[in-house]
Write a sequence for this structure.
């Protein structure tokens, strides 16, 4: 097994990209993810790769489109306002069925917002963001190690579905250091050939990469094909962790770094004899509807905790589908809820339930 | 599990202190996390990092009620001493802090980190003196692990400074013992 090293989340995600065979990175700086492009700028030339700081986020995502079209494993990263700028290109990638990995290290919004951690881009990431009927596969790590593992997986998933995949972290995941190990490494030469890529058409019919389709019926065909992929994702790519839900009377739902803070609150409540569990969605699209729904049948309520004014709570309500009340607690703008705050919210609801 | 906040002004090496400590925990096979403050507060005000060293899986990497606070300057003491757990440990850099902490329900040790560091050759090693005080008072990692971690964290070109840093660590440990 590889040796453990202490790494910042941003740098670890970058190294994971390289280990996944990514040799092309296009980006534009923004806090709190700057260590990611900075690391790529240092490391990619050593691997005969290309790091390019584009003139804007819009340019960067279109460079990603180009490299993906040429069949390369390619990556970009940004933080909230920069990701907003990339939405047009992301929609084009989805429409052209191009794989690529996009990292969003969320900061507080809206607008230029702040630079402290937040989760307020959940809806943007999972419900579209750009225009049209498309979805991203969205993965939300809770630790630096998981950020590495999910980034390695993200490239495989992007190729499997020919669809962009988003790694959704926050300033905490990006900035913190934890021990990590890289469990695999793939060389770009060992990756399967992409028959659809535009790499020169000598001896065969040209491949076309395009998202423009002026015939309505043709465009509908594309949409139906995309929808089939999203159904397949729902069947095959749901990732979720449940902790202490087996005997739970109540459960908290939280993702990413928020889930870790919530876990501290869960453990404290357990020490007091309150049977609380934690559901931690890892894939935010596809959402673990069935797991949340099943726990909703068993518990007296679900408490969703987010670093936002309440976004994932909509998916929790849809998944619970009336089977139990769904409450929400969150802080926004870059304020990180403490485990104490979450514990107090939980206990207040538990007391209310008993009355 | 020990939750530690290390704070000072930019340039005192508080981030490195935290990284060396977390790295030492990792070398010993423990669970560790290091979370820095980042952003505008790093200029002029206090820089700080949250370090957790634990035998078990770490929940929140964000420390809201620390077991240990290391205050390298006065604004850091003012900001973080109130957050300490009851009975927690406050390590004060008495070279730069004359004030007494207000709380009476905590343990306090005063280490003249800058002076002790200057005695071994450079007051820039004040962070290592304070780190020595931490590991002496809170037995979370061995001094050998700190030194191995320091070697990993310092760029090669600074490795000639390791003996000085080791000396600073030891002075901090001695000062904390007294």
């Amino acid at each position: 097994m590889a040796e453990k090293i202490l790494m910042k989340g941003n740098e670890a995600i970058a190294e994971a990209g390289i280990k996944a065979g990514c040799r092309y990175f296009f980006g534009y700086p923004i806090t709190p993810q700057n260590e990611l492009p900075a690391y790529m700028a240092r490391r990619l030339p050593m691997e005969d790769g290309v790091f390019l700081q584009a003139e804007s986020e819009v340019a960067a995502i279109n460079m990603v489109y180009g490299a993906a079209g040429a069949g390369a494993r390619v990556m970009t990263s940004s933080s909230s306002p920069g990701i907003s700028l990339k939405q047009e290109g992301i929609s084009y990638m989805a429409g052209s069925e191009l794989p690529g990995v996009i990292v969003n290290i969320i900061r507080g919004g809206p607008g230029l917002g702040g630079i402290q951690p937040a989760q307020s881009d959940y809806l943007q990431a999972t419900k579209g963001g750009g225009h049209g009927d498309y979805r991203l596969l969205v993965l939300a790590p809770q630790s630096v190690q998981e950020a590495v593992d999910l980034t390695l997986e993200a490239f495989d998933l992007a190729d499997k579905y020919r669809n962009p995949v988003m790694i959704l972290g926050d300033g905490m995941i990006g900035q913190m250091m934890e021990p990590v190990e890289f469990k695999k490494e793939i060389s770009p030469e060992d990756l399967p050939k992409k028959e659809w890529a535009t790499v020169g058409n000598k001896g065969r019919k040209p491949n076309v990469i395009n998202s423009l389709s002026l015939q309505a019926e043709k465009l509908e065909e594309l949409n139906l094909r995309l929808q089939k992929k999203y159904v397949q994702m729902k069947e095959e790519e749901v990732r979720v962790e449940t902790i202490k839900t087996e005997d739970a009377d109540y459960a908290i739902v939280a993702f990413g770094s928020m889930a870790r803070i919530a876990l501290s609150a869960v453990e404290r409540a357990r020490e007091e004899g309150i049977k609380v569990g934690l559901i931690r969605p890892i894939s935010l699209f596809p959402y673990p509807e069935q797991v949340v729904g099943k726990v909703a049948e068993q518990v007296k309520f679900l408490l969703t905790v987010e670093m936002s004014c309440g976004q994932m709570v909509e998916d929790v309500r849809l998944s619970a589908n009336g089977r139990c009340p769904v409450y929400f607690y969150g802080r926004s703008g870059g304020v990180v809820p403490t485990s104490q705050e979450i514990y107090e919210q939980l206990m207040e609801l538990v007391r209310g339930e008993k009355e | 599990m020990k939750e530690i906040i290390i704070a000072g002004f930019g340039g005192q090496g508080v981030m490195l202190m935290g990284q060396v400590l977390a790295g030492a925990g990792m070398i010993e096979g423990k669970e560790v996390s290091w979370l820095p403050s980042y952003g505008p507060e790093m200029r002029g005000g206090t820089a700080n990092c949250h370090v957790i060293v634990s035998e078990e899986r770490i929940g929140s990497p964000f420390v809201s009620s620390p077991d240990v606070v290391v205050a390298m300057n006065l604004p850091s003491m003012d900001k973080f001493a109130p957050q300490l757990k009851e009975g927690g440990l406050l390590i004060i850099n008495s070279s730069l802090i004359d004030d007494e902490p207000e709380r009476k329900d905590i343990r306090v040790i005063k280490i003249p980190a800058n002076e002790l560091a200057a005695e071994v050759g450079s007051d820039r090693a004040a962070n290592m003196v304070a780190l020595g005080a931490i590991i002496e008072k809170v037995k979370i990692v061995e001094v050998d692990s700190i030194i191995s971690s320091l070697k990993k964290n310092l760029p090669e070109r600074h490795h000639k400074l390791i003996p000085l840093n080791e000396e600073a660590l030891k002075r901090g440990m001695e000062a904390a013992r007294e």
Remarks:
- The radius of gyration of chain B is 15 Å.
- Chain B touches chain A through 20 residues (CB under 8 Å).
- The longest strand of chain B covers residues 46-54.
